[in-house]
Amino acid sequence: MENFDELLEKQEQQYSKEEYAAYKQQERDELHQTVEDMTERVFSDPKQLGEYLEMQARLGKTSVGNTLLAMAQNPKATYILTAEEWAERERGIRKGQGRSAIKQFKQDKEYEREDGTMAMGYKVERCFDVSQTYGRKVPERATKSMPIKSKLKALMTGTPVPVRLSDSLDQNAGAVYSEENKAVEVARGLDGNKLFFCIARELARAEHNLAPFSCGCAAAVTCKRFGVSAPLPDQIPQEYAQLETQDKRLAMSQIHKAANDTIDRIDRTLYAELRRQKEQPAR
Predict the structure, then answer these.
(1) Which is nearest to 80 in space by CA: 96, 95, 100?
(2) How many C-alpha atoms does 166 have within 13 Å on its Cβ side?
(3) Which of 48, 167, 190, 232 has the smallest number of CB atoms closer than 10 Å to its CB?
(4) What are the residues whose beta carbons fall under 8 Å from the beta carbon of 138, sequence distance 6 or more?
(5) Dihedral (Cα; 93, 96, 101, 107), 10-degree rounding
(6) pTM of the predicted model as reported, rounded to 2 decimal places
(7) How would you write the pLDDT of the chain (283 residues) with one tens digit per residue?
(8) What ranges do the domains of the chain cover?
């Protein structure tokens, strides 16, 4: 596997210690600005928001900030790791891809602020999408190709509130979380994709108490993660578009957490089912 350590060491030698520190600080500042710019872009255009939600679904637990950075640098990325992490998976970086690295923030060391409080420091690492690598085949997520019935059963396993059919609910509504009954009530006769989306949306509302728009976004991420067809937002509510950048990031973080809490629960159930299938004796 190709090693880039020597290249980076030579790069560092071009600077004095002070110059290198200033260079790295400038790099971090520029990336922070990119995150802010992308946040504003995502909340100003439904198409951009849809692309962000799809990328969040592909990248899984990647933080909101790093997802925005990936979207700015390589909007088609699907699986991002450092060169060292790819090497552990027996994959190398394709020749000529060094200049196309995707810059990401990674946790570094805890440090003490001037006021005495502790904070986590971040460094910039150069990462690469799987499309920029070669080598051993990367296995696909087994849960994505499972039948919709299995995905629905997993979605409704271990839920924070009951999920039950309602004879009075219209199919256009799909599903509604009833605070009075503390349950997600679902209309009869929905197709699998709509059923999955509506239940995921209302579970986000029940578990995280989010606004309807955020619940829909979280449900879209969950659906896309499992290959389930789902509607993406066709407009951005004014109350979101008018938020300060920091509050927009907070809304994105809430969507990210709601989606990943549901995704984790579904994955645990589906992988347990896959293990049971493998353990069953062949007939």
Answers:
(1) 100
(2) 20
(3) 167
(4) 79, 89, 91, 130
(5) 50
(6) 0.88
(7) 666 655 665 565 577 777 777 878 899 999 999 999 999 999 999 999 999 999 999 999 999 999 999 999 999 999 999 999 999 999 999 999 988 999 999 987 777 777 778 777 789 999 999 999 999 999 988 898 899 999 999 999 999 999 999 999 999 999 999 999 999 999 999 999 999 999 999 999 999 999 999 999 999 999 999 999 999 999 999 999 999 999 999 999 999 999 999 999 999 999 999 999 888 776 6
(8) 5-135, 142-279
Task: Give the DSSP per-residue string, 17-54.
Answer: HHHHHHHHHHHHHHHHHHHHHHHHHHTT-HHHHHHHHH
Structure tokens of 183? Answer: 């349950």
Neighbour count for residue 74 (Cβ, 10 Å):
19
Q: CB within 8 A of 71, min separation 6: which ones?
A: 38, 51, 52, 55
Q: Using CA of residue 271, residue 273, residue 274, residue 279, what is the dihedral sign?
A: positive
The region, left, alpha or beta by phi > 0 then psi within -120 to 50, assigned to residue 121 is beta
The long-range contacts involving 20-24, CB below 8 angstroms and separated by at least 24 positions, are 24/123, 24/124
Place of tokens 């060391």: 109
Q: Name residue, tokens 């020597």.
A: 6
- Closest C-alpha among 269, 57, 259 to residue 158: 269
DSSP state of 138: P
Please state whether beta strands 80-82 and 118-129 pair in parallel, antiparallel, or not at all (unpaired): antiparallel
Query: Hey, what are 151's tokens?
Result: 């995905």
- What beta strand segments (E) does 70-187 contain? 80-82, 91-93, 102-112, 118-129, 133-135, 163-166, 175-178, 183-187
